[in-house]
Amino acid sequence: MKQNVQVSNLNASDLKTEVLSGLTVAIALVPEAIAFSFIAGVSPLVGLYAAVVMGLVTAIGGGRPGMISGATGAIAVVVMPLIADKGINYLFPAIILGGVLQILVGALRLGKFIRLVPHSVMLGFVNGLAIVIFKAQFSQFMVDGEYLNGTPLYMMLGLVVLAMVVIQFFPKLTKVVPSPLMAILLVSAIAIGFGIDTPKVGDMASIEGGLPSLIFPDVPLNMETLMIILPFALKVAGVGLIESLLTLTLIDEITETRGSGNRESVAQGIGNIISGFTGGMGGCAMIGQSMINIQSGARKRWSGIIAALALLSFVLFLSSIIEQIPIAALVGVMFMVAIGTFEWSSFRILNKVPVTDVVVLITVSLVTVIEDLAVAVLIGIIMSALSFAWENAVRIRARKKTDEFGRKHYEIYGPLFFGSATNFFEKFDFKNDPKEVIIDFTESRVADLSGIEAINKINEKYEQYGKNVTFIHLSQDCVALLDKAKSHVEIDHDHDPHYSVVYDA
User: Does the keyword Transmembrane helix apply (predicted)?
Assistant: First the structure.
């Protein structure tokens, strides 16, 4: 059973794990932050500053210890058209407004609804992101817009494989040092020690810079500006929360603990606001870096804090050293992350689950790869909802009997809602039924306005034939909305079911 996330004191072993995991994550963040900055069309420092701010804020105040946030490809793709059309000055207010919207989601406690995402959508999300992570690494094999070939390609592939082998087998020797960090150190030592000519972090861009400085967006503060940035702010807020909360749910399952979606929403919002005011491109949770952190053994907030501070120190003091790390080492780490993230068990269950779940899983995976995460999850939820509606629409039925007083009883089974309203109406023999009819909802639930309207129509139809119909065991909320049949309804509070969504502890 999942337990609530609790913060406890660190012992020496835990602290060492947190520190080493944080350093590993920080090193892996560098090339991704640079790459996402290029996608968005901004300076690498804009992505690095966002990674520092988002990582630090969410590590301190977020709802999921061990989860890593930073500049992401999802946000970069969203803001790219705004930057290309209006310039970077409009990026920052869009990120700030997106952060405000995320705080509202958390304050209104809407983060809990991420737990309603079907498992098939979660599997599709995980598999799709694993493919995206894996696919994204191939761009690292390019120099000046062309793929490597010949000896440089073979050397880089050899180093990538070496990093993957170290990650796979080093934990069998010792777990004192996280295997991803050992892979980065070993591959770097070999490449530098033997003078191997292979792409390095510094070949992408320089990461040298100063402290983030407070800025105020240089845009007109009027309605026109609001209309320009609002669509992008909504996308930033939506995409960021979807990716963050789904990553939170995934880590919940791995660690068998429970994070707080609402607290994470607020922290993501605060992080984006601060990022916007310090020249960052904003961001959200990063499943790749989060998996590196969790697989390295980190479970506390310290790993995220150390990762953010270490990344800042790279920018301020250690840029010349970090820029010497071979890209191959980081590619190997991310390849193993992709392999570890992919739910291989989904292949084993394909012939054991309903066809609709299989279709949803595959569709979400493909759309995540082809389009983006937000669209994929939305499509998956809609498909699952329609499938659920259809399955329940055909399940409504009525057991019929006549008692010793000559009254006809209809015992309704299954939910009454927009999908089943027509089938429900067809269950009744208005013309041939006796004078007294009783419709029992003990085993049914009226779910929406369509169901209530169906009850009203049943009442009207029986009245046309001069017959009396009584509805029993309807829940009180349905009775309150029934305007035409109120006088024929009996309320039974003992059979009034109540449903709610689980709240974060």
Answer: yes
